Amino acid sequence: MPIPFIDLQAQRRRLGEPLEAAILKVVRSGAYIMGPEIAQLESELARFGQAPFVLSCGSGTEALILPLMAWGIGPGDAVFCPSFTFAATAEIMPLIGASPVFVDIDSDTYNMDAASLEAAIQAVKAAGEFTPRAVIAVDLFGQPADYPAIAEVAHRHGLKLIADSAQGFGCTLDGRHPIHWADVATASFFPAKPLGCYGDGGAVLSKDARLHDVMVSLRVHGQAVKSDTEGATFEHDPKYLNLRVGMNARMDTLQAAVLLEKLKIFESEIEARNRIADRYAAGLAGVARTPRVIDKGISVWAQYTIEVDNRDGLAGHLREAGVPTAVYYPIPIHRQAIYSAYPQAPGGLPVTDAKSKVVISLPMHPYLEPEAQDQVIAAVRASQASASGGGAVRGQGPGSAAG
Ligand SMILES: Cc1ncc(COP(=O)(O)O)c(C=O)c1O
Prior knowledge:
The chain is of the alpha/beta class. It folds into two domains: 8-259, Aspartate Aminotransferase, domain 2 (3-Layer(aba) Sandwich), CATH 3.40.640; 267-388, Aspartate Aminotransferase, domain 1, CATH 3.90.1150.10. The chain has twelve helices and eleven strands. It has helices at residues 8-29, 36-49, 60-70, 88-95, 114-127, 147-156, 209-219, 226-229, 253-284, 311-320, 350-355, 370-388, and strands spanning 53-57, 77-82, 99-103, 131-138, 160-164, 172-173, 184-188, 202-206, 297-298, 304-307, 359-362. The strands form three sheets. It has a seven-stranded mixed beta sheet, sandwiched between helices. Strand 2 (77-82), helix 4 and strand 3 form a beta-alpha-beta unit. The radius of gyration is 22 Å and the shape is globular. Residues 395-403 have low confidence and may be disordered. The chain binds pyridoxal-5'-phosphate. Residues 59-61, 85-86, 88-89, 138, 164, 166-167, 188, 190, 200, 202 line the site of pyridoxal-5'-phosphate (PLP).
């Protein structure tokens, strides 16, 4: 039987009737926009994510753009981000007229390299074309970036730090969520994400009441919010007093209802994902370079990504064996034609370039049964054995070269 890459139906069966009842309740209530589930979800996410404020929104992309808009980042400004990520991380800068500056990644974790960030900031400052304003670190494949090191660099240079936790919402470092170090952390609830809804959704976690308020306003066309109108009286409904250029970035109530149900089992799903990752690491030892998680980090394993030299051969062999794979990401953002002219860290991005040629992701979800996982492991082992006559192993162990 073919093995699904992600099995959302197994999760739906586990959630059962209460999930369907929650959806039906919204349908019957008629409160499709900003219904009570929205505020309830925001407070549950704040509790879960250890954040003073949470703003739900329509996607992980909107979650990234809202804080940049609130900080007034725009033309002439530089925002530093990795290139080994999904396009949305970098796309939002040109959208608001700012420039992305691409930074290299750490060879073990695929996450932003603080030394490359430091060098990129210094180079941008020296060139004088852009004003450095913010850093976006990504929790790629579900594991936390090196926030202590990245926050030290960003804040020393007076820059804001966003944790793009679209793939990593729920990950921790030494028991703390990324918002502990970052000014803002963002989440995506795209269905395939570790915490996904039944459509698009996102959230912005923050620590500053005024920033949160401005984002509340931007989420609905820059309409006046309570703190804007305190002490003032208006002849008209302040709902139609538009103080900023914003947009429509609301989450649907239906998605909030789905997420409230899924949040109840999210911790147990993270545990299951970690058990499955451990099982992969044991089963694939010696045949592929398996993932390394940062010291004291807990990943939510959005992806289980290995490295092999013969990626296409492995993908073909696994396809024949009924095992789907995916490559995140075959073309780093700085190699995409429309992003290639933006600045990069001095010396380019050699680790990013090397990784894009060797990574391949295997089926990963909390409902992956041991028998199915054994099938994946056996297929990888068989493919690697046939590719090398028994010995095609990418570098093993910490410190092995990134290729
Ligand atoms: C790292 C990263 N950032 C941002 C996003 C954007 O999230 P969304 O698809 O919800 O807009 C994604 C989604 O795949 C992502 O992986």
